[in-house]
Every structure is written in C-alpha cells, then in structure tokens.
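Fold it.
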Amino acid sequence: MSGGERRRYPRIRKAMKVMVKERQGSTRLLTADVSRKGAFVVTDSPWPERELVHLCFQLAEDEDPVELMGMVTRRVGPGEQESRPGMGIDFFALSTDARKRWDSFVLALGDEDGLDEDQLTPTRRAHSRHFSRFLVRLRDKQRLREFYTRDISAGGMFLRTPTPQQVNPQVQLILVHPLSLEEFALTGEVVRVVDGPELAERGVGIHFDPLPLEQEASLLTFIETGVNHLRKLEGEPHERLGMIMRAVEAMHDSVEALIHLGDLLLREVEPESARQAFRQVLELNPSSLPAHRGLYKVYTMLDDPLQATRHLAALRRLGGQG
C-alpha cells in the first residue's frame, strides 16, 4: 500500500442524472463515471479546476436526494483528447448519511456488474492491479482496537461475504473510523475460500500484506485519534481552510453539510470559522443539538465561558449530552 497514492478507488462507467446547484439556479447534467470518492460530469462548459461544486443525486425514486460537496480536480474542454468534455469532481465534505448512502449505491453498482473489470478504470497506476474492495465499518474504537490487536497482529482475518467465489485474489479492506469517518486502506491476498450452503458460513480467509513500520505507526495513530495521516487533501493549510470556508458559504441552506463542515473546522483548530458554520445551522434550526454542541466546544476553545455555558444549558434543555 503506497502512502503517496491518492486515488485508490475504481471508477465505474455510469450515466446518471445529477443536479449542479448554484445560487442563481440549478443545471441538470449527466455523469460519465462514478466512484466512492467522486464523479466525472459531462458538460461542454466545465468549471475551472479547484472550483467548489454542490451536487444533488437522486439515487432512488422513493428516497430523498443525496447532496454532496466536491471540488473540480480535472477539466476536459471540448475538442481535447478525451472522448467527452466535462469535469472530474472529488467529494470532500459528505455528511454521515450522505456518505453511507453513496457508498451503498456505488458498491451495489459493482455488484450489478459482477465486478467486471472492464467496467472499472484503474486510476494513477503504472501497472494495473485489480482489487476486490470491502468497507469494514467498526462500531466503536474498542472494536477498531480489537481488529488491530487480533487481526493485524495475526496477519490475517476471515471476511464473511455471500459470494466468495467472485472475490479477486487481491483484496483491499477500507477501515472506516467509527467516530471521525476517516479511512485507512489495508491490502492482502485471499488464501482460503469457504462457499458452503449456509450464507452465514461463506467467506474468504485473507492474509494481510506486511505493513512498513511507519505505516503501522500511522495505523495505530488512526486507531487512537481517528486521523489518517496517509490521506489528506492537497494544498497548504491556508488553502485547505479557504476551501472549507467556501464550502460553508456554498452550503448555506444545508444543515447536515454545515454541521459536518463545522466539525471539520474544529479539527483544523479554527474555532472562529467553525462558529460561523454552527451559527448558520442555528439560523436554520434553533433546536439543532449538534450545532449547540459544536458552539459549546467553540466557545470553550475561545475561552468564553459565558457563551459556552449558554450553549451547554441549551443542550441540557433540549435533551442533549453536554
């Protein structure tokens, strides 16, 4: 596993409708491909690189749309060598619900295609190496630590899956931190296949690739703190802060997105900027527990006990835990 490889996720060719939302209105476009971390949107007028984009996907007719924030990382104009003009967009500020729904949607696309490698476009690899990828969502930090001490120390694990015969020999497990939702990727090889009559017994035995010492230290840091030092957005700190603040402005009417962005700003130790995001949430929903909780943390960091106490009282009044 390489710490310098930013894009680990395959793209699946998929034409689906997407709404690009702006303050002055919305534009309906189509995607050419999607992945867990982004999409390529077809348009004759692609936005400039590093521009923030607010996207809205209707994943199912009987469900609410999923709203995602992303940044243009690739721009293809009409007449260039690519087959279609458009813009490649990387997602970076997903709410917990949006992340889970989008992950389920993209993984289901892979299942529908039978994990056909002709449908997957490898990204930024000199030599193609096809993985079967599995999300491992651990319920809490204790379960995460048990995985580290039990499975990593033993060098492998048994992964239950209803279709073990479809799993490629090379496997990537993406650990999802239960608190921060940060991700850490581990690779390995299938050494045993169990395909019995009972669904609960089916699965594959996986032997993990050895981790270099520095990556094992990063994994331990990931477990203890929820911060994956191997995967950070590119750019200097002031660029990253500016990007998050532009997202706060763009998502001015989305409570979930603003809460997520406020939490990001708190992790960046930017309490003044986080205050702006959480205050916008309270303008939309004065009873928002996450916003009051966030402002309690903000004012504690700013050493303003009067305001911190006010939001702590609101948490207790509204039934939250301070």
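Confidence is low (pLDDT under 50) at residues 1-7, 112-129, 229-236.
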